[in-house]
Amino acid sequence: MRSININLYKMVDLEKITIQKTSKTRINEVDFANIPFGKVYSDHMFIADYKNKQWGNFRVVPYGYMPISPATPAIHYGQSIFEGLKAYKNDKNEALVFRPLANWKRMNVSAERMCMPALPEELFMEGMNSLLELDRDWIPSTEGSSLYIRPFMFAADEYIGIRPSDNFTFMVITCPVGAYYSTPVKVRIETHYTRAVEGGTGFAKAGGNYAGALYPAKLAQEEGYHQLIWTDGKEHKYIEESGTMNVMFIIDDTLVTPSLGDSILRGITRDSVLTLARHWGMKVEERRISVEELIDGLKKGKVKEAFGAGTAATIAHIELIGHEGHDYYLPPVEKREFSNKVLKELDAMKRGISADTFDWIYKV
Ligand code: COI
């Protein structure tokens, strides 16, 4: 178990975090047994400003609306990035966060691609910590629930010319959440629209990637699917990811997932699943998977399991895959050995029940 000693004051311009507490908590209004994803926010939020090439003005304030210039480039041109991670409680009522340093690293990968300043580790971690200390009671302890943590950064100049902003805002908000997908998901392979291309921003967690994916996903939702499986932007021949999660398959006895590139998000849950599978001695392949191979495997019953892996989605069983007007059903969820096992083990690790073999758990 990792407990990092953070010294924000030393590393980030000797400033203190000012804390303004809410005068009235909203926690009693929340039905923790029945939490929708992303609609209920905890009492406070963390904010930091980047001005004159420095991070400063660190503050925790009551969650709420905030004034923003109508000329901010984040609104006009989408210079904005985000992360998603989750906090859980163990049986001692301590707050545990799953792999926050991996999110911090990925946020800086996104920041570089989007011409945004790097976030010091201390700022990312202490922003999250200061919030979790205040809003610790918002971390649900019910199985299947957690506190979703959403760090994000956006361009904050008052300028609508096209150039990278000079000013930025970094914030963290949190919300108690239940399952992102409440049932096994129905996905359709997308072979017309494109989410990301080589040389593009698909690997970054940039807001615009998600905005551009809404319309094709909406068309699929009108046909009864929950989500798409994106294919490569050049030929639409190879499986990429699902937009809300990476995708993985058990083909025969091998865990197979598309290899990473410019157009696929470097999922932290994806990495956790691959690490666990390798640790368990399973055969793992990160490689190109053609649509043809997948459909052929589905027809011949070689694809034993299919699932999405993501922070919000956790391990989301795929019920069926649609392609060219036909739905290919996967075996029943209760027969899926690997995805059920990995879901259970990851959940146990996140709640401090299983050993933290890979040093993934950060105690607040
Ligand atoms: C996450 O899994 O954290 C994401 O950002 C995906 C989004 C669909 C909520």
Description:
The model is unreliable at 1-10 (pLDDT under 50). Strands 1, 2, 3, 4, 5, 6, 7, 8 and 17 form a nine-stranded mixed sheet that branches. Strands 9, 10, 11, 12, 13, 14, 15 and 16 form an eight-stranded mixed sheet that branches. The termini are close together. The protein has 364 residues and is of the alpha+beta class. Helix content is 24%, strand content 27%. It has helices spanning 8-11, 73-77, 100-113, 121-134, 207-222, 268-279, 291-299, 337-350, and strands spanning 18-19, 44-51, 54-62, 80-82, 85-89, 95-98, 146-155, 168-177, 185-189, 227-229, 246-251, 254-257, 283-286, 303-310, 314-323, 326-329, 361-363. The longest helix is centred in the middle third of the chain and has 16 residues, at 207-222. It folds into two domains: 14-177, Aminotransferase class 4, branched-chain amino acid transferase, N-terminal domain (D-amino Acid Aminotransferase, Chain A, domain 1), CATH 3.30.470; 185-350, Alpha-Beta Barrel (D-amino Acid Aminotransferase, Chain A, domain 2), CATH 3.20.10. Strand 15 (314-323) and strand 16 form a beta hairpin. The radius of gyration is 21 Å and the shape is globular. 2-OXO-4-methylpentanoic acid (COI) is lined by residues 84, 244, 310-312.
Please describe the topology of this protein:
Elements: H1 8-11, E1 18-19, E2 44-51, E3 54-62, H2 73-77, E4 80-82, E5 85-89, E6 95-98, H3 100-113, H4 121-134, E7 146-155, E8 168-177, E9 185-189, H5 207-222, E10 227-229, E11 246-251, E12 254-257, H6 268-279, E13 283-286, H7 291-299, E14 303-310, E15 314-323, E16 326-329, H8 337-350, E17 361-363
Parallel strand pairs: 1-3, 9-10, 9-15, 12-13
Antiparallel strand pairs: 2-3, 2-8, 4-7, 5-6, 5-7, 6-17, 7-8, 11-12, 11-14, 14-15, 15-16
2-OXO-4-methylpentanoic acid binds next to loops.
